[in-house]
Amino acid sequence: xxxxxxxxxxxxxxxxxxxxxxxxxxxxxxxxxxxxxxxxxxxxxxxxxxxxxxxxxxxxxxxxxxxxxxxxxxxxxxxxxxxxxxxxxxxxxxxxxxxxxxxxxxxxxxxxxxxxxxxxxxxxxxxxxxxxxxxxxxxxxxxxxxxxxxxxxxxxxxxxxxxxxxxxxxxxxxxxxxxxxxxxxxxxxxxxxxxxxxxxxxxxxxxxxxxxxxxxxxxxxxxxxxxxxxxxxxxxxxxxxxxxxxxxxxxxxxxxxxxxxxxxxxxxxxxxxxxxxxxxxxxxxxxxxxxxxxxxxxxxxxxxxxxxxxxxxxxxxxxxxxxxxxxxxxxxxxxxxxxxxxxxxxxxxxxxxxxxxxxxxxxxxxxxxxxxxxxxxxxxxxxxxxxxxxxxxxxxxxxxxxxxxxxxxxxxxxxxxxxx
Length: 420
Hints:
By secondary structure, the protein is an alpha/beta fold. 37% of the residues lie in helices and 14% in strands.
């Protein structure tokens, strides 16, 4: 496999990223960088590779998580527990702009890749380490998977219903941490290449940036409303399923034709329109208990009962037409299988085919729509597919590559066009 050639207009064209990554958080970060044109070289254990490759086999024999966050990358199968493997890694880092890692606690330090060591050896490198709980805290030593961090940060306590906490379906701790990491990298690259100081930490001197970002801190940030409310009100809000503790009415209601409609108001004017124009209930609009949002949240059950009674007498299409005409926010409750063919995706041509080792699959374009630029949407790599090519780029000869393969320093397929 040869490197993905990004369009000339790619914002990160010419940037090389080395990824010591697994699961979702760091792969999400580096996939975002690849979407913007960076070259991402993914370092994987020759035995099995990124363990997310094996979560399931539903995508033509491949794992759904893996193909989601690993398009547009090159894979090098390299045993970092060997001196020769570490030497190859350092040769790659010598020509790289960015290092992203999310290994187990302490793993990067054991590899000689602590922030202090990276600052001394690669002063212009932007190095990002994603971990569970940040450095030096009482939980810093713990493994941190998406669910564990969500539970620790209180996310599960505000999801689900009273007495039945739940994990949000998407891996929000992993994914949002990856996005924050990508944003931090782009900011540091901008400052570095604009001639400004890229160094944001106080760990060592040098021009490179050493960034630590934890899943726990990211989730604490996303819990901002709930933490602020609990601190100042002195109470924990009960989770409300498909409603919100912050505003009312705001929730899901069954319709006459067996669907579920979601209706929401965010201010007093919208509530007045919903009560008078949609429900035809001027008595509710005039009731002083419902005049302000705090009053409506205190009497949520009465409002939900009135809205549910009206919705059960109308079909989904009629409810949405009436709500649109009244300027009231509304949506249809969809299952994932229904979103695949959602007209908002299909009519806007948001799906593209990408290559994988098992054949082409559909993949969504990244959310940002940039004039005159479309993400490269490069292939999902097989384990070690690019090992020989990339080792050839850094000067390894065919005989050296053969010897490293013989002693299991590298893995991946054998290519006859290896460097000579």
